[in-house]
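Could you please consider the sequence and fold following this short note?
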Amino acid sequence: SGTFRENRFFHWICIGVVAVMLAAAYHPDTVFDWALENATATAFLILVFSTYRKFTFSDVSYLLMLIYLGIHEWGAHYKYSDVPLGEWLKPILHTARNDYDRVAHFSFGFLLAYPMLEIAMRALRVRGNWLYYLPVECTLALSAIYEMLEALAASVLTPERGEEFVGMQGDMWDSQEDMFMAGLGALVGVLIIAAVVKRRNARKADREVAIPAVAAK
């Protein structure tokens, strides 16, 4: 937190973002597909950096965003349907398709659940169970918007370019499964956050009970 000049951790995050973007831009498999995949990522980064003074995320949130960016950029560099990790997963998952896109969509929900929760808590002043519901709901909504934009882009591209960008790989339920993985990731993320908060509150309550007991002695 604090001003940009004082926030050393955020400086390292910025360096990490630049490094990840440059690495992904170095001889990508398909320049056109890389450019399309980076349209939403660039818009997201511009939004985060341009609103820094109005809303500064925690160090944890910035780190989670950077990790997700790395996962996305790896997919953009290799073209999601050809990422090496997805090829390695084929025999493990017993599938003929490259499922790296499923990993990326799950990571979107899982890694960005905490930043979304921060927005809900600090900017929207949300409290109670809604605090854990909204990140899941927002993840599903953003996933649906992305899938619609992806379909729109595919409709104006050539069939070959559209297939490269969408990466359905013959799966007619690709969009629905991507949204499901993102929602599942967000659900797992908020459940972990809720468990951590519950444990922290329990420890805090134990300390508050122990202090008067010690003083009474």
In short: The longest helix spans residues 174-216.
